[in-house]
Amino acid sequence: MKTRVLAVAMMSAAMTIGFGSVSALAEGEIEYKHVDAPEAINENGVVTADQWEEIYPEIVESFKANADNNYRISYLDEDPYLSNVYEGYGFAIDYTSAISHSYTLEDVNNTERPHPLANCLTCKTPDYTKLVNDMGEEAYSYDFAETLAQMNENISCYNCHENQAGDGGKLVVTHSYVTKALGDEMQNIAPEVLACGQCHIEYHFDPETKATTMPYSSVAEMDPTAILAHYNEMGFNDWTQESTGTGMLKAQHPEMETFLGEGSVHAQMLNCADCHMAKTTSDEGVTYHSHKWESPLENEELLASCVQCHGDTDMKEKVTAIQTEVVAREKEVGAELSNLKDTLAEAVAANSLDEKTLQQVRSLYRDAQWYWDFCYVENSEGAHNSAMSKRCLNNAETLINAAMARFA
């Protein structure tokens, strides 16, 4: 089974309005401190985790424990057909599992995928988030190497709390492209989900400004079919595959879209923190939300919360069964997609299709790859929304079969 890590970064909260605004968790078991934020000593104007540690030692200690997650696998080794499907794009060269947010700058610096512009740093460091907030969209087209040299901290406190003290669990949506896309619609999304969704989303870089851009403006439009229609209408391609002549799309990591999408049974009851941030009490009796982001399958306290709805169900067994089924279908449909790609490439090389049929097959191939990829790159392997995962894979297979029929 694919091994992935889904990480989130926030404390629970009740309402987020927009960029620069805050939200707070109602006081309860957790006794929140009311303090002034320290003055940023980071040259980029970011209050670092080390500074916050003096005020929130338990939280920062748990946050730093994310560094324990440094296990990495190569998806290209695990699923060799990926190199064929992604031919001509960076993911055919280097595609490994994400390790913890403690290594984001290291990851983006070491990847063999090309990244000429600084927009690749969008969700890698609070220093770049602050830079965009200060400089505007022009920061997205800065040189990557020059900008990276100015970055100091991996994903950290600023990304979800800005430079505010976090009194009452306050959150801040710091990524301005989110508020630009969603605006007032953000009030219809749980702030805990927004805090994660700032980065765990589908996005693209605007062809002109190079700005990180979300392809929708409402929850209803987060559906993979609606996103595909948007990209098709704007004629957007992530790359053009040379062997097939097809303008292709590369899905990112649509956790928020999947969690909120049609078929989700959890979105109305739970949020990211409920399942990935355990409520913890220190030896000194301090209760806080752990900022070590974990799968509930790896944390008994998180797993125990499932019994409120699932009773005595063996949740590890249940979730593992879902993930096993979805991963098996990913591999099956991925192999079919790879076969379609080869068949199309051979037809292009032999000039064996008339222009109308060729364009039909290319369109079907592009759309099929989108639906398959939307499921493959989503980190929960079906656990967030198995209905959507299966629907995407079924749509992909239907399109693959329709394309293959054109060769008959």
Explain the overall architecture.
The chain is mainly α and 408 residues long. It is 42% helix and 5% strand. The chain is built from 18 helices and 8 strands. The chain has a two-stranded antiparallel ribbon. It has a two-stranded antiparallel ribbon with strand order 3-4. A two-stranded antiparallel sheet has the order 5-6. Helix 16 packs antiparallel against helix 17 (355-376), helix 16 packs parallel to helix 18 (386-405) and helix 17 runs antiparallel to helix 18. The two termini are 35 Å apart.
For this entry, give a set of tags.
two-stranded antiparallel ribbon, 408 residues, 18 helices, mainly alpha, disordered N terminus, two-stranded antiparallel sheet
Secondary structure: elements and pairs:
Blueprint: E1 22-23, H1 49-52, H2 57-64, H3 75-78, H4 81-85, H5 104-110, H6 126-135, H7 144-148, H8 158-161, E2 171-172, H9 176-182, H10 191-197, E3 204-205, E4 212-213, H11 224-234, E5 239-241, E6 246-248, H12 255-260, H13 272-276, E7 279-281, E8 287-289, H14 300-304, H15 307-310, H16 315-350, H17 355-376, H18 386-405
Antiparallel strand pairs: 1-2, 3-4, 5-6, 7-8
Helix pairs in contact: 16-17, 16-18, 17-18
Summary, kept brief:
With 408 residues, the protein is mainly alpha-helical. Helix content is 42%, strand content 5%.
Number of strands: 8
Helix content: 40-55%
Shape: globular
Radius of gyration: 22 Å
- Please mark out the parts with pLDDT under 50 across 5 or more consecutive residues, or reply none: 1-27
Quaternary state of the chains: single chain
Order of helices and strands: EHHHHHHHHEHHEEHEEHHEEHHHHH
Straight-line distance between termini: 35 Å
- Number of helices, counting only DSSP H or I runs of 4 residues or more: 18
Structural class comes to mainly alpha
